[in-house]
Amino acid sequence: MRNRITVIGAGHVGETVAFNCARLELGDVILLDILEGIPQGKALDSFESSPIFGFDSQVLGTNDYADTANSDVVVMTAGLARKPGMSRDDLFYKNVEIVEACIRSATAVSPDAVIIMVTNPLDAMCEVARRVSGFPRERVIGMAGILDSARMRSFIALELGVSVENTHAFVLGGHGDTMVPLARFSTVAGVPITKLMTEERVQAIIERTRKGGGEIVSLLKTGSAYYAPGLAVAEMVEAIVKNKHKILPCAAYLEGEYGMTDTFVGVPIQLGRKGMEKIVEIELTDEEKAALESSAAAVRELIAMIPATVG
Ligand code: APR
């Protein structure tokens, strides 16, 4: 039997996740949205590309959670984008409501799934999903670090004129302006970038990585990034369904690791069939530790805003 991968939200990110999971034959994909016709149309279009790509995954579009039953992985991308006149707080509460409703319905029919959260603000929405699902922390993970490190890697490759395949980047912390890109663990063919470019260029790359999401929004004007986020999710799905034990930077719920408890924050984790197999702890300098703690403090402020009725 093939794996079943549910993607909630058939917007830009959701459709990209669904298409890539199908194309990579990670399993059969069920794309769900509240809008009628949109998930069905996008799923059919994806499926009709299968003879060209040569994949045999099924792609089903639906508005009914019953069709998502017994999924191995549930990817949550549904949410609202900020509209003119809407405050950041209004958006936060609206997305809490959407995540609560979607995760409740999805986990009722897929009680053993691994949840991958994508809806922003990412780390706080992970906590909403954790409370609503009642799942252990191993099965509620957020996508952020792979995207942030992919952005950093692409900027490193551009700067040095090398293949992106030679690059590695390390980004910790919450998904936002407070993220912590670690230059000394970011390398080209194993050599730290701090030895390959000036401190000024390293800082410029770090700054561009931190503002990577905003750079795309300011160009698109009416939406946010989806190619790189969609593929980043597909990499997580692949690590899970193929039980790769792959170490990837993801948002995880800390219970003492890095000296922190009761909060989601981006850290390297090992991903396999059961979800998060372990959190990889690396030794940080005092400065890096302080940056990670202040990033986690920003996440905690948002988590504190989650209404007590959630969960
Ligand atoms: N149930 C199911 N789907 C919903 C619901 C709901 N209650 N509410 C909204 N949606 C759907 C919308 O109908 C829309 O198709 O979620 C989809 C969101 O799509 P887009 O607006 O295109 O947003 P997208 O660019 O995909 O981003 C989704 O990912 O990266 C994050 O910040 C981003 O939080 C945002 C999310």
CATH superfamily of the domain at 4-142: NAD(P)-binding Rossmann-like Domain
Sheet with the most strands? Answer: 6 strands, parallel
Q: How many H/I helical runs?
A: 10
- Categorize the overall geometry: globular
Tally of strands: 14
Q: Which hetero ligands occur in this complex? A: adenosine-5-diphosphoribose
Structural class, judged by helices and strands? Answer: alpha/beta
The average pLDDT value, as a whole number, equals: 96
- The amount of beta strand, in percent, is 15-25%
According to CATH, the fold-level topology of the domain at 4-142 is Rossmann fold
Q: Report strand order across the widest sheet.
A: 3-2-1-4-5-6
Work out the radius of gyration: 19 Å
Please state the second-level CATH architecture of the domain at 4-142: 3-Layer(aba) Sandwich
Q: Pick out the low-confidence regions.
A: none
Report, as a whole number of angstroms, the end-to-end distance: 33 Å
Key traits:
311 residues, alpha/beta, Rossmann fold, 6-stranded parallel sheet, 3-stranded antiparallel sheet, 42% helix, 20% strand, binds adenosine-5-diphosphoribose
Fold and architecture overview:
By secondary structure, this protein is an alpha/beta fold. It has a domain at 4-142: 3-Layer(aba) Sandwich (Rossmann fold), CATH 3.40.50. Helices cover 42% and strands 20% of the residues. It is built from ten helices and 14 strands. It has helices at residues 12-23, 38-48, 50-53, 88-109, 122-133, 145-160, 199-210, 212-220, 227-241, 286-303, and strands at residues 4-8, 28-32, 59-62, 73-76, 114-117, 140-142, 167-168, 171-172, 180-181, 187-188, 191-192, 246-255, 261-272, 275-279. The strands form four sheets. It has a six-stranded parallel β-sheet with strand order 3-2-1-4-5-6, sandwiched between helices. The protein has a three-stranded antiparallel β-sheet with strand order 7-10-11, covered by helices on one side. It has a three-stranded antiparallel β-sheet with strand order 12-13-14. Strand 1 (4-8), helix 1 (12-23) and strand 2 (28-32) form a beta-alpha-beta unit. It is globular and about 55 Å long. The model has no long low-confidence stretch (mean pLDDT 96). Bound molecules: adenosine-5-diphosphoribose.
